[in-house]
Amino acid sequence: MVTDAGVFPKPAHGPYYRRNANFDAVGFRGIHPGPSTMLPQTQSAWTRTLGQLALVLAAALLLGLLAGHPWPVLAVAALGVVAWHYWKLRNVLLRLDARQRVEPAGGRGAWTELDRLLYRTQEEMRGRKRRLVEMLRAYSAAAAALPDAVVVLERNSQRVRWFNDAATRLLGLHYPDDIEAALGERLQPLPISHWLAGGRHAEPIMDAASPVDPALRLSLRLIPYSDELWLLVARDVSKLTRLEQMRRDFVANVSHELRTPLTVVHGYLDMLDPEEQPEWTPILDEMRRQSQRMTQLVEDLLTLSRLEAQDSVEDEDVAMDSMLVTLRREAEALSQRGHGIHVEDRAGADLLGSTRELHSAFSNLVGNAVRYTPTGGRIAIEFARSDDGGATLSVRDSGLGIPTAHLPRITERFYRVSTSRSRESGGTGLGLSIVKHILHLHQARLEIESEVGQGSTFTCRFGPERVRERATAPAPPVITP
Length: 481
Ligand code: ADP
Prior knowledge:
This protein is an alpha+beta fold and 481 residues long. It is built from 13 helices and 14 strands. The chain has a 6-stranded mixed β-sheet, with helices on one face. Strands 2-1-5-4-3 form a 5-stranded antiparallel β-sheet. Helix 2 (40-67) packs antiparallel against helix 4 and helix 8 runs antiparallel to helix 9. The two termini are 74 Å apart. The chain binds adenosine-5'-diphosphate. Adenosine-5'-diphosphate binds at residues 368-369, 372, 397, 399-402, 410, 416-418, 422, 427-433, 456.
């Protein structure tokens, strides 16, 4: 159990508490007349003390006059008053020094008023402290009771400052041994040292095996909530991961099971000769088209399932000059001379990755450019280096474009701007989803810029680690009308 407020970062350490506390709730006072004016009670005590001083001095003067020595008697009386005040001041200092709380005695002078004010301030401070501790305990108990593992760690040293009960269950941290432990080392074999070093830029880890039990799947998120302290939140996503796996298996199995019957139907359709029954020609054509579509759909679903099951690709040198030649040939075949196709290789470099998968991604983009660009439009495929030392492959068309509202969802499975247009052009709605998965396996990004009626640019952005210098000079631009 790590619910002790003592292990929770102290409020005195600054931003942690200051940012979260509701100060009204801990009793800071509201309006006060200000430093130059007094409350009526204090004002009257002050006036009374001044009056008493005047009275003592007047009495001493009178006594002095009667005795025939007014000044010496007045001086003695004044000294007496000063001594009395010094004695009172000493008492107050002693009490404050000893942190004593003394209830104000009776009396209505300035010293009694000072006692009363000091007592009131001390009482307020005590109340505030009590409320702060209560709030701290409540926060601490709430954080400890969270079902997600929460670890507070020091930013620079990455050492553990505090963690809740769930951190013991999900991450295997134990109190008090792991307080001040280096988190990266402590959570081995979970590879998070490098991730923690990413700090503010660390992307959440969506699925990782728990160091306690590899069957326990965790999602990890780093929240840099102050300059010195970070919060690591780990959530148990085992159930979600299992469900996701079931969904993937289901889609893969259904697609696989559909393959054989489709091949049979396809085979029989091919055997039917339309010339024998001319009136059946349109029906047979439609049946062939639909069975072709279904086959493509099954193939795309199987491709997606295969990609989703992969964590990485087998790296090889991907010869980009021949890749670009192939893409151009495919674009020309699909376009049937309907578009101006422009291919440019400005990178003079190759990529590191899977030739088969990258070809599949690029040719999907090229296919889309042709399918969604009316005859007479232009398509440009360009491979270039980027400023950060990486490389980009972009496919630009002068086609229909995509309305901005659709862009955030365009890479989702079966998401289409126009279902009928996609179907007419032989689309399955899975192309961009496949592209995104392939790029993800290459730690690359897909960027989409589009304007309705002007065209779209799909850019695959690869990091420097995926770029290989090419021995030969870049091929000259290949342009076909
Ligand atoms: P589909 O098989 O329907 O083309 P994709 O996943 O490849 O599926 O594309 C999803 C949708 O994105 C398409 O239905 C289309 O609406 C839009 N789209 C993709 N590429 C382009 C493009 N180059 N120009 C205009 N729209 C496009």
